[in-house]
Automatic annotation (TrEMBL), chain A:
Keywords: 2Fe-2S, Iron, Iron-sulfur, Metal-binding. GO terms for biological process: P450-containing electron transport chain. PANTHER family: ADRENODOXIN-LIKE PROTEIN 1, MITOCHONDRIAL-RELATED, FERREDOXIN/ADRENODOXIN. The lineage of its organism: Eukaryota, Viridiplantae, Streptophyta, Embryophyta, Tracheophyta. Its cofactor is [2Fe-2S] cluster. GO terms for molecular function: 2 iron, 2 sulfur cluster binding; electron transfer activity; metal ion binding. InterPro entries: 2Fe-2S_ferredoxin-type, Adrenodoxin-like, Adrenodoxin_Fe-S_BS. One of its GO terms (cellular component) is mitochondrion. This is 2Fe-2S ferredoxin-type iron-sulfur binding domain.
UniProtKB/TrEMBL annotation, chain B:
It comes from the Eukaryota. It is found in: Mitochondrion. InterPro entries: FAD/NAD-binding_dom, Ferredox_Rdtase, Ferredox_Rdtase_adrenod. It catalyses: 2 reduced [adrenodoxin] + NADP(+) + H(+) = 2 oxidized [adrenodoxin] + NADPH. GO terms for molecular function: oxidoreductase activity. Residues 23-183 form the FAD/NAD(P)-binding domain. This is NADPH:adrenodoxin oxidoreductase, mitochondrial. Its EC number is 1.18.1.6.
Length: 160, 483
């Protein structure tokens, strides 16, 4: 059941990426092999790559983050970017979030139903994220021991 | 795509086609029960969910199983509370299935009954001496230090010697080892039950042996818990270097499971570090003993009827195909002295009248959560309207989050059955249950009653610098709930 959902999102993401003129050669299979990893914050990328960034987030059990402090970025001067959440029925929900906010917080602040049983205290694995693109995955830091411990138990963990 | 769309359309159809709501009763208010309730409420606008539990307090093992020094694991309670407070959901505590009402009565009152009452018993070893005093299941010990009202009077013997043996090397084994060996100053600011803290302060236990039938590659514990116990200050870890040698079959197992590989590496590092630490007379020690299986328990000469040690048989591993290795006795034995034994070898579920049960596996036979009444050949006949979720369905394995997927599967089956139109009759639901409980003079505890218990425990906790001071007897719990 979960596999079916991943491949469904995979196809949505591929079409979106292709439309943006981004990497279109990634087949469905490659995307499914992306490494499960936490996403502490959105990487700051130059403007022209911004549209492809908008395309990659998945909804469902596959999200998350280590706890990040976004409160320091609460003022209006914080730059905001758009994330599109794609829910399990294929509906796209665009939201504007400040850079530095975790994906889990972004979802909950916008009433998007995302599982986070321990409320971002790194004590479970319900919000783990799969980064579909190896280039972006490589921009992130290596997972810490604590994150890997939680990933050991995650349902639907995938390898690169 | 079609399944979700169909489910969505049918739930709309169901709620609009009839003004009769879908009455659901979930037995058990732990993670399995609450995740099931959450998903049923989200999937069906016409659903009313009652969650019953035999305790006056909800949350199952999140309250009574998670160790006192793991408060972040208990955060899941917040989400469960939100579900209980949903307008179409009610928690009804102090109602016991099998005593206050029967399964068939429940099935008469509700369209859907989901049994999620977990595993409240233990696997037995079936070896001589098992009934000696001083031998407990880890479940009993955990319930004792977590203030479960059924075990507040356990009084485990912590003063006869300096050694305790724990059979099993899963996370429950690590939990009880940690509680036995952690300095009580650290435990004093947790929600541990006061009677346990007092007993631990006077405990003479300094050496804990974790015994596993197989090797470090097969140990059932997980990396986070192992890392934690290896990091406890002034706790000396003892692992035999010889136990760490791996066979090709072990390498194979580590290749297929990243978790196992990481655990093996952690244990190897710990063994190397242990060699360099010097012994100190009053130190606390945690020994990982591999390749030993218990053959019998030894009785004390000075205290008749009390355990004084375990007779262990050395084992070697044999492959049984499919990458699995089992422990086989070698005929060589040795004794390990101790005054307390905790069996952490697995929980077991308890059947109720009228419920099909697989006594060998200790679970309710089911297909995707639908209870199976009997199977002939390939065909399973299922019980209409009866489902299972959680440990009662899968066996006592997994973490809290495992129940998310388990509930998803069970609720998927429920939704499919609704689509097939199995619920034609109207049922009394909550109203019927309340009438029945009233007639039988059952003192039910609703969520507001739990909130009173919660407030009282937190208030008492403030006075003692703890997150809460648990109420540990039935009388105190029911009195606080009725206040």
């Amino acid at each position: 059941m979960l596999g079916h959902r991943i491949s469904r999102f995979g196809s949505t993401i591929v079409k979106q990426l292709a439309r943006e003129g981004y990497i279109s050669t990634y087949g469905r299979r490659n995307l499914q092999r992306s490494y499960g990893h936490y996403l502490p914050s959105l990487p700051v990328v130059p403007r022209q790559a911004r549209t492809s960034q908008e395309a990659w987030f998945l909804k469902s059990h596959k999200f998350c983050t280590s706890s990040t402090t976004s409160s320091e970025n609460g003022d209006e001067e914080t730059e905001k970017i758009t994330i599109i959440f794609v829910d399990k029925d294929g509906e796209e929900i665009p939201v504007k979030v400040p850079i530095g906010m975790s994906v889990l917080e972004a979802a909950h602040e916008n009433d998007i139903d995302l599982e986070g049983a321990c409320e971002a205290s790194l004590a479970c694995s319900t919000c783990h994220v799969i980064v579909m693109d190896t280039e972006y995955y490589n921009k992130l830091e290596e997972p810490t021991d604590e994150e890997n411990d939680m990933l050991d138990l995650a349902f639907g963990l995938t390898e690169t | 795509m079609s399944r979700y769309l169909a489910r969505y359309m049918v739930s709309r159809y169901f709620s609009s086609a009839s003004s009769r709501p879908l009455h659901v009763c979930i037995v058990g208010s732990g993670p399995a029960g609450f995740y099931t309730a959450d998903k049923v409420l989200k999937a069906h606008e016409g659903a009313h969910v009652d969650i019953i539990d035999r305790l006056p307090t909800p949350f199952g093992l999140v309250r009574s199983g998670v160790a006192p020094d793991h408060p972040e694991t208990k955060i899941a309670i917040n989400q469960f509370s939100r579900v209980a407070q949903h307008e179409r959901c009610s928690f009804i505590g102090n109602v016991k299935l099998g005593s206050d009402l029967s399964l068939s009565e429940l099935r008469d009152l509700y369209h859907v009954v989901v049994l999620a009452y977990g595993a409240e018993s233990d696997k037995d070893l079936g070896i001589p001496g098992e009934s000696l005093s001083g031998i407990y299941s880890a479940r009993e010990f955990v319930w004792w230090y977590n203030g479960h009202p059924d075990y507040s009077c356990l009084k485990p013997d912590l003063k006869t010697s300096d050694s305790a043996v724990i059979l099993g090397q899963g996370n429950v084994a690590l939990d009880v080892a940690r509680i036995l060996l952690r300095p009580t100053t650290e435990l004093a600011s947790t929600d541990i039950a006061t009677h346990a803290l007092s007993a631990l302060k006077e405990s003479s236990i300094r050496k804990v042996y974790l015994i596993g039938r197989r090797g470090p590659v097969q140990a059932a514990l997980t990396a986070k818990e192992l890392r934690e116990v290896l990091g406890i200050k002034n706790l000396h870890i003892r692992i035999k270097q010889t136990d760490l040698s791996v066979t090709p079959a072990d390498e194979e197992e580590m290749k297929t499971s990243r978790a196992r590989k990481r655990i093996y590496e952690l244990l190897s590092k710990a063994a190397a570090a242990a060699k360099t630490s010097k012994a100190d007379p009053d130190q606390r020690e945690l020994h990982f003993v591999f390749f030993r299986q218990p053959d019998q328990f030894l009785e004390s000469d000075e205290r008749k009827g009390h355990v004084s040690g375990v007779n262990l048989q050395k084992t070697i591993l044999e492959s049984v195909g499919t990458g699995k290795q089992i422990a086989v006795g070698t005929g060589e034995f040795e004794d390990l002295n101790c005054s307390m034994v905790l069996k952490a070898i697995g929980y077991k579920s308890v059947p109720v009248n009228g419920l099909p049960f697989d006594h060998k596996k200790g679970v309710v036979p089911n297909v995707k959560g639908r209870v199976v009444s009997h199977t002939s050949g390939d065909i399973s006949q299922t019980e209409p309207g009866l489902y299972v979720c959680g440990w009662l369905k899968r066996g006592p394995v997994g973490i809290i989050a495992t129940n998310l997927y388990c509930a998803e599967e069970t609720v998927g089956s429920i939704s499919e059955d609704i689509e097939e139109g199995v619920w034609k009759s109207s049922k009394a639901g909550s109203k019927g249950l309340m009438q029945l409980l009233e007639k039988r003079k059952v003192k039910k505890v609703e969520f507001s009653g739990w909130e009173k218990i919660d407030a009282k425990e937190k208030q008492m906790g403030i006075e003692r610098n703890k997150p809460r001071e648990k109420l540990v007897t039935w009388e105190d719990l029911l009195a606080a709930a009725a206040n």
